[in-house]
Structures are given as structure tokens and as C-alpha cells.
Write a structure and sequence with these properties.
alpha/beta; Glutamine Phosphoribosylpyrophosphate, subunit 1, domain 1; Rossmann fold; 25 strands; 22% strand
Length: 612
């Protein structure tokens, strides 16, 4: 979704702003713009990529040591030059960039039109800056007071940055429901919607909270006030991010780099959480709230997209190991139902970005009904992490490719740890089983490494299916969510229609689709239901569908039936998703590359979905 960068300090602002926008490109966007303050307040913006903006700026005067820049992902109004940010106020005294949605913009716009305001764009953002100007001029208030008053009137989500032509040493920024980070450097401040544009300049950051306004002035310390004028003490935290984590490091795409990082990221997800004797799993979020877990009558897992798939794997794990009933809910559905939630429920919210608007709203709903909220997030300090009562970070490092890969396996790893830790405490798994599973979990990075050795085979197979129009993915039990995830990866980055199904459901409809044009990916590693999956493969074969099978090393039955077979190392059933997902990620990747698709920034998609 939209990206924000801001700078105030002794250096030229625009190179920092443009570089910052490039670091935020992964979030997905359709237009870009910049504002700088020099002799006057200048705004330049264009539809297209940051490189288009750079080309547009070549002959423009963009010097100045204070400025802001934006990448827009259209919500209100199509992607074009006018709707791109920054937006000027009517007198062009103020300019604003904005992430989020002002829900009551139409009513405010109507009132402003009555007061003679004219609008250039179709955006809700322009309404906000016009409102701020109107309040400032009509009440004679300062810019800060006008911003406070306007933000008390708006309904919705925002991360905003404002520049004023008449105050050349101040940036005002605020957030509610959309992230904003302030970097504190030597006599300079940076601002961004995540830490990636900041880390190059400073590791000291302040994450703004909802309804907080940062006042950044040259030569002064950061000041924070709420929209209701309460002064707040800025809490400075140290970034753990490294610059190298934001580079491709020789890979053609971030997605490929992130797929290959998985041996390390899975290890990082359990590192420090298992003791040497493999008999204790320590997760502070569980230990500190152990009574909640001991007394839990039900777990509700809420998430979106890939994180929802991880939640489905978690459902099997918690039911198998901790014997707690689990429901897995799409956040977007859950928030608008009238769900029955008890105080004895634990709601686990899973989110890579920690900013998904629907998941945040689902948390707020569950919280209001007394449930205990456990967040599983990748981005440290993110909104969902902060809105949860407790939680665990996945420690996968920044995920830049829009299609989630290493975040998924890290989420599954954390869910496995949780299910094991809770099962152990509740006495629902015996000691030898616990030891065996914990030991096996620690072999997974090595087995992922071996699975990545399938890279060349998958690349070859991908060539055969580059122009397929549909794909079916089948799996049972723990492999059903893997089938869903494989299908989602392919859809997202190659734009091929794909569906994931529980293998046995095929007979109830999708079998009608099978003909010689239909590739069917079957994950056939299950021990308990192996014969049944083999029968499903036979059914596909009988209709001339082409089978790509993921099997356990040494399998001969499926090998004899499938057109292509990819062997993964043997592991415990509950850990198979950590291996079986890898060839599916690679298959989607190579097909997308063959089709010349923009792998890291697929069309229409955003990395962090901060609007509904
Ligand atoms: C798929 C993908 C999305 C996200 C979904 C939730 O590759 O990336 O489906 O999983 O938008 O995002 P988070 O996990 O950030 O809440």
C-alpha cells in the first residue's frame, strides 16, 4: 500500500526521499510524488513508477533540505497525475501526503464546497488538507491546532505528513491505524511508513501511536502531542534491521532470495526458544499468561491470505497437540459477523506486516468482548503487535517480495512451538512425543536446504507449464493448507487461475475440470491417508490430467503414476508444510519469471493491506 518518506535536516532532501521511495516500492503502488520546501513549496507528482517520477524531476528545481514523498496505491480516484500525492490546500500554503482512508470525506467535502473550496482531485486526501487550511484560516489557529482539530473530525485511518510554506523548519506528521516511524539522526529527522528508508541513516526510531502527532523542527528534540493536545514522552527504540536485508544480494528477485533464506529464517523463528535438552519451550507471551492458555476453552485464529493458510496449519497443530478446539477465521469476515466470543477464548492474530486493517479490526472486536489476544507478527513494533495482549515475533527479517514466502514458514514454525509448549503444559502430549517433535523441528532447516536442491528440477518443470491457463492443487490434512498456499502463490505472481482443494473434495465438483490441459499438483506425503491420495491421483490420471506430485523421498507408488515427481525429505506429518511449500513457491516463481511477470511487485497487489 501507499508509502511515506519525509526528511528535515542539513542535507539535500530529494535524494533521500527518492531513495526512500525506492525502498518502499515493494509495498505496491501506482503513482508517486514529492514536495520540497525551498523559496516556495513545490509539488511534483506523476502516475507510474518512482523511475517515472525521477525522469519527470530531471529539469525541475527540487533543492531544499526539507521535504516529503509518497507512493500511492489508489483507493479513491483512479491512478493518475492529479490524484497522486502530495496534495496542495486551496491557497497552496500547505501540502499533505496520506496513507489510509478518510471515511467521512464526502460530508466534509460537501461542507467545504459550501465555503467556496474547489477540489482538483477525487481523493479523500485533498479533503483533509483543505479542511486543515479551512480551520486554520477561519479560526486563526496555528497549523498544529488546525491539524488537531481536523483529525478530531475525521473518521478513518491515516498516516499523514504536512509541510507549510510559511514554516520552513517544521514537519508535522500524525497517525491513526496506519503506521508511521520517525528516525532520529544527528540534527535531522526522517519519517517513513516503515523503517526500511530510515535504517541507512539512523537506528534510533520512535513509532507513533494512534492519534499522536509528531512535531519535527530543526535544532529541536522531537515533540509528540495527541490530537487532543496531551504531551507524550517519545519512546526511542533501536532498529534491529540491517541494510543488507533490504538488498537482493545477487538474486534476480527478492522473492527468490526470500525462498532461499528459509533455512535461516525457520531457525531464527525457534532460536532461543528451545532449551538444550529439548524439554522446554520458552515463549514469554505464553509463560506470562499461562493461566489463559491452561483455561482456554477455544482458540480462534484470525488472519488474511497466506497468514490465514498458516492459521489453518496451526488449527491442526493445536487440535493434535494441545487438544483445544480451534476455529480459523478470515479477519475480513470475522469483523463483520456477530461472533460469539467468550472471555475464555484466545484469539491468535497472524500477520506478517502487522498492519492488515481487517486483522486489526478483528482484534479490536475480540478485545472488546474480553478475549485474550495473542499476536504473531513479523514486523517489530507493528500495529497488530502493539494491539495484542501478548505475542511472538516470527523473526523472519524484512519480507520485500509481495508474495509471502519466508513469513509463512516462520509463522508455521511459531505455531508449532506454541502448540508444543501449550500441549506440554496441559499434559496433552507425552514426554517422548514432545522430545521427538522438538528434535525433529530442529532438523527442518537442514531439510529445507535439501528441498531447495529441487530448484533446477522445478525450473525445468515450470517451462512445460508456463502457458497453462488453470492449475489445481490437492492435499489432505496438514497438506490441505499447503495446497491452498501453492495455488495462491501461483495466482498472485503469474496471474494463472489456480485453486487449492482438499484432495477428497475433488470428486464433489472440481473433477469436472480435469482434462489433458489441466495440471494437478498433488502433495502426497501423508502417512495416514496416503492410499486415499493415491486413489485421487488415479482419478486424475484416468481423465488425462497431468500430475506434478510432491512425495516423500523413496516413494515409488506415486512416482509410477505422476508425470513429474519432486521428492522432499521425510519428516513428522505436522512439519511437512515447512518442506512441501518450498517446491510450490519455486514453481510459482519460475512460471512467473517465464511469463515475464513482475515477480516482486505483481499487478494490483500491495504488501501491507492497510485499508479494507
Ligand atoms: C500472499 C500475501 C497476502 C498476505 C495477506 C495478509 O502472498 O502476501 O495474502 O498474506 O495480505 O498480510 P499480513 O500477513 O501482512 O497480515
Amino acid at each position: 500500500m501507499c508509502g511515506i518518506v519525509g526528511y528535515i535536516g542539513p542535507r539535500e532532501a530529494h535524494p533521500i526521499l527518492i531513495k526512500g521511495l525506492k525502498r518502499l516500492e515493494y509495498r505496491g503502488y501506482d503513482s508517486a510524488g514529492i514536495a520540497v520546501l525551498n523559496s516556495t513549496l513545490k509539488v511534483y507528482k506523476t502516475k507510474g513508477k518512482v523511475s517515472d517520477l525521477e525522469a519527470f524531476l530531471v529539469d525541475k528545481d527540487i533543492s531544499g533540505t526539507i521535504g516529503m514523498a509518497h507512493t500511492r496505491w489508489a483507493t479513491h480516484g483512479e491512478p493518475n497525475n492529479v490524484n497522486a500525492h502530495p496534495h496542495f490546500s486551496q491557497s497552496e500554503e500547505l501540502a499533505l501526503i496520506h496513507n489510509g482512508i478518510i471515511e467521512n470525506y464526502a460530508v466534509i467535502k460537501e461542507e467545504l464546497i459550501q465555503h467556496g473550496y474547489v477540489f482538483q482531485s477525487n481523493t479523500d486526501t485533498e479533503v483533509l488538507i483543505q479542511l486543515i487550511e479551512y480551520i486554520k484560516k477561519s479560526s486563526g489557529s496555528t497549523l498544529l491546532e488546525a491539524v488537531q482539530s481536523a483529525l478530531c473530525q475525521v473518521v478513518g485511518a491515516y498516516a499523514i505528513v504536512i509541510l507549510s510554506k510559511t514554516d520552513r523548519s517544521t514537519i508535522i506528521a500524525a497517525r491513526k491505524g496506519s503506521p508511521l516511524v520517525v528516525g532520529i539522526g544527528q540534527d535531522e529527522f526522517l519519517l517513513a511508513s516503515d523503517a526500511s528508508p530510515i535504517v541507512e541513516y539512523t537506528k534510533d526510531v520512535v513509532y507513533l501511536d494512534d492519534e499522536e502527532i509528531a512535531i519535527l523542527q530543526r535544532g529541536e528534540k522531537i515533540k509528540i502531542k495527541t490530537i487532543r493536545d496531551v504531551e507524550k514522552h517519545p519512546e526511542v527504540t533501536k532498529l534491529e534491521l540491517n541494510l543488507s536485508q533490504l538488498e537482493k544480494e545477487g538474486y534476480d528477485h527478492f522473492m527468490l532470495k526470500e525462498i532461499f533464506e528459509q533455512p535461516k529464517t525457520i531457525r531464527d523463528s525457534y532460536r532461543g526458544r528451545i532449551n538444550e535438552g529439548n524439554d522446554v519451550i520458552s515463549m514469554a507471551g505464553i509463560i506470562d499468561h499461562i493461566d489463559r492458555f491452561m483455561n482456554a476453552r477455544r482458540i480462534i485464529i484470525t488472519a488474511a491470505g497466506t497468514s490465514w493458510h498458516a492459521g489453518l496449519v496451526g488449527e491442526y497443530m493445536f487440535e493434535d497437540l494441545a487438544r483445544i478446539p480451534v476455529e480459523v477465521e478470515y479477519s475480513s469476515e470475522f469483523r463483520y459477523r456477530n461472533p460469539i466470543i467468550h472471555e475464555t477464548d484466545i484469539v491468535i492474530a497472524i500477520s506478517q506486516s502487522g498492519e492488515t486493517a481487517d486483522t486489526l479490526a478483528a482484534i479490536e472486536l475480540a478485545k472488546s468482548k474480553g478475549a485474550f489476544i495473542y499476536g504473531i507478527c513479523n514486523v517489530v513494533g507493528s500495529s497488530i503487535a502493539r494491539a495484542s495482549h501478548a505475542g511472538s515475533y516470527t523473526h523472519a527479517g524484512p519480507e520485500i517480495g509481495v508474495a509471502s514466502t519466508k513469513a509463512f514458514t516462520a509463522q508455521v514454525t511459531v505455531l508449532a512451538l506454541m502448540a508444543l509448549a501449550i500441549g506440554r503444559k496441559r499434559g496433552t502430549i507425552d514426554t517422548p512425543t514432545f522430545h521427538r517433535l522438538v528434535a525433529e523441528l530442529q532438523t527442518i532447516p537442514e531439510k529445507v536446504e535439501q528441498t531447495l536442491g529441487l530448484d533446477k528440477d522445478v525450473k525445468e518443470i515450470s517451462k512445460i507449464f508456463t502457458y497453462s491457463r488453470n492449475f489445481l492443487y490437492l492435499g489432505r490434512g496438514y497438506n490441505f493448507p499447503v495446497a491452498l498456499e501453492g495455488a495462491l502463490k501461483l495466482k498472485e505472481i503469474s496471474y494463472i487461475h489456480a485453486e487449492g482443494y482438499p484432495a477428497a473434495e475433488m470428486k464433489h465438483g472440481p473433477i469436472a475440470l480435469i482434462d489433458r490441459e489441466m495440471p494437478v499438483v498433488v502433495i502426497a506425503t501423508n502417512k495416514g491417508t496416503y492410499d486415499k491420495v493415491v486413489s485421487n491421483i488415479q482419478e486424475v490420471k484416468a481423465r488425462q490430467g497431468r500430475i506434478i506430485a510432491i512425495v516423500t523421498k523413496g516413494d515409488s507408488t506415486v512416482k509410477g503414476l505422476a508425470d513429474f515427481c519432486l521428492e522432499i525429505p521425510e519428516t513428522e506429518e505436522m512439519l511437512v508444510p515447512l518442506l512441501a511449500t518450498i517446491p510450490l513457491q519455486l514453481l510459482a516463481y519460475y512460471i512467473a519469471v517465464n511469463r515475464d511477470c513482475n515477480v516482486d511487485q505483481p499487478r494490483n497487489l500491495a504488501k501491507s493491506v492497510t485499508v479494507e
